[in-house]
Amino acid sequence: MTPGAATPMDPVAALAAVDQAETALAEAAGADQRAAHLAVLAEDARVYVARRPPAAGKAEAAAALSAWPKTFLFAPRTGGGASDAGDLVWTYGEAAWEADAALHQGWFVRVWRRDEGEVWKLVFVQLVPGVAPPPLRVTTQPPPAS
Question: DUF4440 domain: from which residue to which, for each copy (predicted)?
Answer without folding.
Answer: 19-122
